[in-house]
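> agent: user asked for a holo structure of the chain below bound to zinc ion. Plan: (1) validate sequence alphabet, (2) canonicalize SMILES, (3) run complex prediction with ligand conditioning, (4) return tokens. Step 1... ok. Step 2... ok. Step 3 dispatched.
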Amino acid sequence: MNYKKIRIHTLILVFIFLLGCLKDKNDTKGQLPSLDGKKVLMVYGGWDGHQPDIFVGKVSKWLLEEGVQLVISDSLGIYTNKKIMDSIDVIIQYWTMGEITKDQFRGLENAVKRGVGLAGCHGGLADSFRKNPEYQYMIGGQWVEHPGGEIDYKVSIVDTNDAITFGIKDFTMKNTEQYYMHIDPNIKVLATTKFTDSIHPWIKDRVIPVAWKTYYGDGRIFYLSIGHKPIDFDTAEAKKLLLRGITWASGSKYNPKENTLQSVYD
Ligand SMILES: [Zn+2]
């Protein structure tokens, strides 16, 4: 083999290597755990205005396409079923307002502490059980207002390196609620939205998280504030964020603990 041939072979190898790098860069699946074969519990109910049954129909379809084993319940009583709670990998809760009993909350809390992930969106995860501060402590934030009702607003991706947001560009949500949240300032914020002065002048330019990740015990918590109407998830970026967030949360039992601490006061 002469030098020219060796050079060509080397160039081909370098080309194959670069192609591999390019493929990895475009494929976030390697960084997220797979949902295939995972056990997912969907719990839905609460305030009817959020159309919990339609939300569950839509999201369960995505999940079944990913190969999950799905348990669906319209009762919070399922949180007291230790056998089911011990067997699942992630809970998706869509339950706006309502009340949770002590036993139901303990069942949910203990499962999450042991490493069951908890994911969800809008009022279904961060405006549930207003009378229960322990629940809010677990989620890392609570809805407090949506100035102007159904409006158009922009979502900015603030952490483009995270596996959940990787490759997603800033986008606009149309004719839906822009959630103003009170949050734990130590959550890892993935996306934000900026408020205008059109309804409440004093909140002009205030920036509020739209998506975050955190831990409670060993359980991964993912929250997305989008989702006033199930049709919100026809916006491709919103669907991607929720599905990837659920996928990330499903890995608590299997993947190493991530550092999600992002204290704004350090
Ligand atoms: Zn809403």
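> agent: step 4 complete. Summary for user: Residues 50, 122-123, 177, 228 surround zinc ion (CB under 6 Å). The domain at 32-249 is CATH 3.40.50.880 (Rossmann fold).
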